[in-house]
Amino acid sequence: MPLLFPRQYGHSERQLGAGTTARVYLYVHEEDLFAIKKIARRERESKKEYLDRVKKEVHLHRSLPKHHNLVDFIDFFVTRGKPYYVMEYLPGELCVSRKALNVDSQLCLFKQLALAVLYLQEQNVSHRDLKLANCRLTSEGILKLIDFGSSIHGNEGVGVAGSKGMVAPEVLRDLRYDSFKSDVWSLGVVFLELLGRRTKWKEAVWYDKAFELYSKSQSIDDVSDNLAEFQHIVLPMLEIDPLQRITMSELAKLPAIVRVNHCRPGNIIHSHYFSP
Q1: DSSP letter at 105?
Q2: Which Pfam families match (predicted)?
Q3: Which of 130, 215, 259, 260 could be a cystine partner for 186, CB 3.0 to 4.6 Å?
Q4: Looking at residue 254, what DSSP letter applies?
């Protein structure tokens, strides 16, 4: 049964975040908390095109079997021509909490995200916008991947999708590409950010001098500073040639990943949650 339109019952509202095409609000109804995503209508987009785009995102999310590292779909409805996309409320911001994490916790969070991406690919879905801002935490500190606005069924990516600095080189140069492999590249950049580092390049394009240097050397020293101990994880993900890049199933089987003791429901090992 659909949730009632928020104005039909007592609630409090607080904006949780905003992207270029969406705002997310917290709605409190009695003891229940929900995140409601309001997706903005694009310039020159007809009402039908707008609703079709929103429904496509919702349909993909709703079709996914539940997984403890993916945000739960709750409901979707249209009231007075406005779509409301309801999800579980996730209170923790990973981009804030990572600043106080030790290496074990950073690896734990990375493994949770990797398992989320692997699960999506097992469901034949490419996320195409992996970044810290699209990771949130439950009150217990379990990482959940959010935002399926750029996601597609299958791995045949067409056109540029994703956020600046996170996108694989083939996405920026090719008409079509393997979006499973481009997600692996983005995951590699997220790994660096979880460690509090950044790539030396701003974008994975040939006219970026730092990226050009890395593309020739494929050296961990040209990715970021002080990463030698993680090169066996980083370099396979940031392989320039997507045909040679590690797959998600191969990544999950790396000994360095397998031995990471990660948090999951019923087995909370690290305290990841920090109030924003």
Answers
A1: H
A2: Pkinase
A3: 130
A4: S
Other C-beta atoms lying within 10 Å of the C-beta of residue 82: 14
Measured CA to CA, the distance from residue 23 to residue 73 in angstroms comes to 17
Q: Are 192 and 198 in contact (CB under 8 A)?
A: yes
Q: What are the residue ranges of CATH 1.10.510.10 in the chain?
A: 92-258
- pLDDT one-digit tens code per residue, 2-56: 444 443 323 444 444 445 567 888 888 777 899 998 888 888 899 899 989 999 9
Residue numbers in the known binding site for ATP are: 38
- Compute the distance between CA of residue 195 and CA of residue 214 in angstroms, rounded to an integer: 20
CA neighbours within 13 Å on the CB side: how many for 17? 16
Rounded Cα–Cα distance for residues 232 and 228 (Å)? 8
DSSP 37-95: EEEPPPTT--HHHHHHHHHHHHHHHHHSPP-TTBPPEEEEEEETTEEEEEEE---EEHH
- Annotated binding-site residue numbers: 38
Among 261, 195, 182, which Cα is nearest to 226's? 195
Fold of 6-88: Phosphorylase Kinase; domain 1 (3.30.200)
Residue ranges of the chain that CATH labels 3.30.200.20: 6-88
Amino acid at 186: S
Return the higher-pLDDT residue of 22 and 84. Answer: 84
Residue type, 89: Y
Residue with tokens 């509090």: 196
